[in-house]
Design a protein that fits this description.
This protein has helices at residues 28-43, 68-82, 94-98, 120-125, 154-161, 164-173, 179-184, 197-209, 213-227, 229-249, 254-268, 272-283, 287-297, and strands at 3-7, 12-17, 49-54, 58-60, 86-87, 90-91, 109-113, 116-118, 130-133, 138-140, 177-178, 190-191. The chain is an alpha/beta fold. The strands form three sheets. Strands 1-2-3-7-9-12 form a six-stranded mixed sheet, with helices on both faces. The protein has a four-stranded mixed sheet with strand order 4-8-10-11. Strands 5-6 form a two-stranded antiparallel sheet.
Length: 307
Amino acid sequence: MPIHYDNDVDHVVVITIDRPEARNAADMEHFKLLREAWERFAADDQAWVAIVTGVGEAFFAGADLKTYIPEITKFQKEIAETGRTEINGYRLDDGTRSVLRNWPLYKPVIAAVNGFCTAGGMEMLGGCDIRLACPEAKFAVMEPKRGLFAGGGTTVRLPRQIPWPQAMEFLLCADLIPAQRAFEMGLLNAIVPRTELLDAARAYAERIIANAPLAVQATKQSALQALYFDEDVTRQLRAAVRELREAVAAGADSANTAAEILERLGKELRTPFEKESKISSYIFQTEDAKEGPKAFAEKRKPQWQAR
């Protein structure tokens, strides 16, 4: 399989992009398989941390322009003609889901960047929490050099994750940036020799899985929801607008209907701090929240149950 999904050690999986003949660039099939790997990880209660890496001289180079563009163009036409959302397991969101764009994966992801990380590789890197690279790795948002656009999340995520001038250097110059420079810009956690890359990633994973899994996931959830707060608010406002439009079209009592919808919206909207409080309340009621202090008092290693 060109996308490998391997159970590594307890609670850790390794997802490997294996298409060296195309510098680990993806056609439609590879985007689908990568999306399925992430969804498998998300659904597996025993998988707490994922490590993603590549083979050969590349980490991930995004779309294989020679094959993907004609494939996706044909597929979009078939979807439009049939009115279906999925054909033979392929979906229109394969490309964006595979690079972790804007979907609630709250389990930690570690990137072990073994080489070139360009285009879609940079998109996916933006969805990774811990980022390690070998000295030979290079990074670039290459799309502007091809007259294209980085539509997998990079233009939104990068300026929120590293300082603005550094993000703009990536986005506007579209140059290949060496690993040491990327580390100085705040894109990476560490640079380690290529032969030690996976071991270093495993060491980070071990540090993470030593903690209560639900608490770790809730912490990432709170951080992401605060970083992309406008996403949640926009979705809620759109839903309210849609309800109001439908109510008016149905001839409902507009004033009362609007008041009810706005009243509910006001109760549903949450600031990042309010969301944090709600998540915190949930975690303190879990079994792991009881186990942690008990294990500390008894001077033993906690036995996490993820419940």
